[in-house]
Amino acid sequence: MTDAVLANAHVLVVGGTGVIGKAVAGHTASAGARVTLTSRSADDASSAAGEFEGDVSGVAYDATDHATVSNLTDGGPFDHVVITAAALSFDSLTDIDSGVLDDLVASKLLGTMWTARHLRSHVDDKGSMLFVSGMLSRRPTQAAPLAAVNGAIESLGKALAHEYAPLRVNVVSPGGIGTEGLGGHTGAPGDVAALVTATLANPWINGTVLDIHGG
Questions:
Q1: pTM recorded for the entire structure
Q2: What percentage of the chain carries pLDDT values higher than 70?
Q3: Helix H segments across 10-130?
Q4: Residue 208: how many CA atoms within 13 Å on its side-chain side?
Q5: How far apart are CA 34 and CA 138, in angstroms?
Q6: pLDDT for 19-59, tens place per residue?
Q7: Sign (positive/negative) of CA torsion 165, 12, 204, 124?
Q8: At how many degrees (to 10) do helices 144-163 and 111-119 cross?
Q9: Do the beta carbons of residue 44 and residue 17 sit within 8 Å?
Q10: 3-state secondary structure of 104
Q11: Where residue 14 falls among pLDDT bands split at 50, 70, 90?
């Protein structure tokens, strides 16, 4: 089903040179999609795109810089948008540097908001947007700033499913890559990418936060 739905669809992966973003780009390309991936660096985006078979291209885009959004909109329209870009920090609120905190909020929260706002009119109503949060949103044992941002991303996704309807909006919340689940499997970027791809392809998944952490 997934391959049939995504064949020839145009998928934009914002943050497509990151660990999860690159896995998503490869997984959707393998399903037959045309993929555009982004990085802050045009060279990095082009280099990453060249690692995949199929119709994959790279463009420069900085989620914190509105002036670069034309690089995305000029490449549309899109059927699906996946936003993974983030400058992450696992520091506590007590210890986090003010500049690092600003970068975290600017890239992952405000960057997701502004990217989603700029792209709404460039995404097919029958398609979807998908954001990536993280399990700290509901299991906040550490890294309070990141936990708070992840929670905000999940609320944003649920709200935009109503505001942007009929476009679907979902959030995938992964556990730590490289951690072992109760079944003994160690989570990898490809596991997250497989769930992202299935969510893009399934029209009955909407306004939902999907956990993936192995229990």
A1: 0.94
A2: 99
A3: 19-30, 42-49, 70-73, 98-104, 111-119
A4: 14
A5: 34
A6: 999 999 999 999 999 999 999 999 999 999 999 989 999 99
A7: positive
A8: 20
A9: yes
A10: helix
A11: very high
